[in-house]
Amino acid sequence: MLPTLRDGDRLLVRLRAGPRPGQLVVVRLPGDRPRAVKRVVSHQDGGWWVERENPQVGVDSWNVGAIPEGDLLGVAHLRLWPRPRRL
């Protein structure tokens, strides 16, 4: 999620919150991939379209399609560490 987030950042996440386009969300990606933070672009019939901020690294909806409702785990509202700031 560079430039918005860096490795080691700690986030305040509201679980099961309904996102709005432009917000950062925690999602469960298909397969054996770990949970990830992505930016919501839009809602489609198949779920939420999410994208990465660094197109050189990672996986997003361009690779795996829309993320089903149940795999969107929460909305990130605040970076707590290293310096608190709203996302």
Describe what this molecule looks like in 3D.
The chain is mostly beta strands and 87 residues long. Helices cover 5% and strands 44% of the residues. It has one helix and six strands. Strands 1, 2, 3, 4, 5 and 6 form a six-stranded antiparallel sheet that branches. A hairpin with a 2-residue loop joins strand 3 and strand 4. The longest helix has 4 residues. The chain is globular. The N and C termini lie close together (12 Å).
Describe, in short, the structure shown.
By secondary structure, the chain is mostly beta strands. The protein is 5% helix and 44% strand. The protein is globular and about 35 Å long.
Distance between the amino and carboxyl termini = 12 Å
| Average pLDDT | 94
Unreliable stretches covering 5 or more consecutive residues: none
User: How much of the sequence is in beta strands?
Assistant: 35-45%
Query: How many DSSP helices?
Result: 1
Shape call: globular
* Secondary structure tally: strands: 6
Work out the helicity level. Answer: under 10%
Oligomer: single chain
H and E string: EEEEHEE
Largest sheet: 6 strands, antiparallel
Secondary-structure content class:
mainly beta
The whole-angstrom Rg is 12 Å
